[in-house]
Amino acid sequence: MYFFYPIVFTLEEEHLKSLEFPAVSICNFNRMKKFGLSSGTPLLLSEGSSSFYCNTANDSERNEIKDSLQQYYEMDEDWRWRKGHKPSRFTQKCLFRGRICPQNRITYFQNLCYGNCITFNKRNKEMEALTVSDV
């Protein structure tokens, strides 16, 4: 048996001439360039830790991977940035409204999980976010 309850809702439709364009971030999932790693030591994402213990790696392999991750986390941000992939190398071009993205709208950051990243249109105190409108 199911109960039926009346539902009342109000829908308001608003037509705006322009909308705020969201910030867009792109990261290289490979935290470090291959030559930045010690030989034979893969870096796994920490999010994979649940499956990490379910895989077929033996204890010595597992310990080597954990040690590599620990070393990576202990590196300072500048060192990780220098050893990581540069966003200018993994992004070909950025266009907004058919034009090259303004450099003052592009920011770079380093993330422990995702490596080096680039963000376009990040909101800050000095600039309003860019907007888009229906053509």
UniProtKB/TrEMBL annotation:
GO terms for molecular function: ligand-gated sodium channel activity. It is found in: Membrane. It is a multi-pass membrane protein. Its main location: membrane. This is Acid-sensing ion channel 3. It comes from the Eukaryota. Keywords: Ion channel, Ion transport, Membrane, Sodium, Sodium channel, Sodium transport, Transmembrane, Transmembrane helix, Transport. The keyword Membrane applies. Belongs to the amiloride-sensitive sodium channel (TC 1.A.6) family. The keyword Membrane applies. GO terms for cellular component: plasma membrane. The gene is Asic3. It holds the Pfam family ASC.
